[in-house]
Design a protein that fits this description.
Structural class: alpha/beta
Order of helices and strands: HHHEEHEHEHEHEEEEHEHEEHE
Low-confidence stretches: 305-309
Largest sheet: 6 strands, mixed
Strand content: 15-25%
Distance between the termini: 43 Å
Shape: elongated
Number of strands: 13
Number of helices: 10
Helix content: 25-40%
Mean pLDDT: 86
Strand order of the largest sheet: 4-3-5-12-6-13
Length: 309
């Protein structure tokens, strides 16, 4: 097994294509295929299977990728610490649910570190993908929430990926609406108030169970439902169609626009937002500083997180 073979496997998994991975690696497709087959023979596992849509990572491959990314990450750290040539770009990645404070903290980190060269990734993505990203070290930090409703399933999935969850703050649920929505005149909104308005939520891909929804009260019946994949679309539909979504109430007018406002939702439910990290990997300096930036971005009115669910 060589580090190049590990790089080949990771690049192929990210590209979802042998042809694309070979182009990114500047090697021929037969050379890449041969190197991967040799590694599979050496390990006695199948890392990839071919489908009519390209390639798919096997269960063994997912586990192997976690170790491969960890080894490559450690290699980069060693080069940065001991290498004679300090020309490598610092790399850091975050995967998060669609929270403005996670983006703000990411911006704060970049301004704080002041690097002249870097490759940082900020992935707003599906809940289960966050666990996969951190579990395979595609990202070093994940940001998501748990609640009394989903905690058992979420914590089981976190443990299954070899991760740990650290609470940041507990938030009362709010509805995000346009300031022109009739509900904007209310100081507090009830579930009955929402009945006639379109409900917006984020697509969760293959893991679209209610337990992985980003929105609280996702089992609430709704006659009008809109499913989106990105924040900009959701907010445009909130404004254009007078819809609503349920979230933490932490909102930033600079990032999300002044037309979106938050109103408390009268329910007994709550969200406990926290970070997930790999259980066997020591946090890098960037990870520690990003989490510090997250804590500084938390709203002053947010309740302290309590690890009590």
């Amino acid at each position: 097994m060589t580090l190049n073979q590990l790089r080949y496997v990771v690049e192929t998994a990210e590209a979802h294509s042998i042809t694309e991975a070979a182009a990114r690696l500047f090697i021929t497709q037969p050379s890449l295929t041969s190197a991967i087959h040799a590694l599979e023979e050496e390990l006695g596992i199948r890392i990839f299977t071919r489908t009519n849509k390209g390639i798919r990572v096997t269960a063994d491959g997912e586990e192997f990728l976690a170790y491969a990314r960890q080894m490559l990450w450690q290699e980069r750290l060693m080069h940065q610490r001991y290498g004679k040539r300090q020309d490598g770009k610092p790399r850091f990645s975050v995967s998060a649910q669609h929270y403005s404070f996670a983006i703000e903290a990411f911006v704060d980190l970049l301004r704080e570190v002041g690097e002249t060269r870097y490759e940082f990734h900020m992935r707003e993505t599906e809940t289960y993908r966050i666990l996969e990203d951190v579990g395979t070290l595609r990202s070093e930090v994940g940001v998501l929430y748990r609640s009394p409703y989903n905690a058992t399933v979420i914590m089981r999935a976190i443990a299954a990926h070899g991760l740990r969850f650290t609470p940041l703050f507990r938030a009362r649920p709010h509805v995000f609406i346009s300031k022109r929505n009739p509900l904007a005149a209310k100081e507090e909104v009830t579930l009955a108030d929402l009945r006639d308005f379109p409900r917006l939520s984020y697509e969760q891909g293959d893991h679209n169970a209610f337990y992985f929804a980003e929105e609280l009260q996702s089992t609430l019946p709704a006659d009008k439902e809109l499913i989106v994949t990105d924040r900009a679309t959701l907010f445009n539909l909130l404004i254009g169609l007078g819809g609503y979504t349920i979230s933490s109430g932490v909102i930033n007018a600079e990032l999300n626009g002044a037309d979106i406002i938050a109103r408390p939702l009268r329910v007994t439910d709550y969200m406990e937002v926290g970070v997930v990290q790999h259980g066997r990997v020591r946090a890098s300096n960037y990870a520690r500083r990003y989490i510090a930036c997250l804590k500084r971005r938390l709203p002053s009115e947010a309740e302290d997180a309590a690890d009590s669910i």
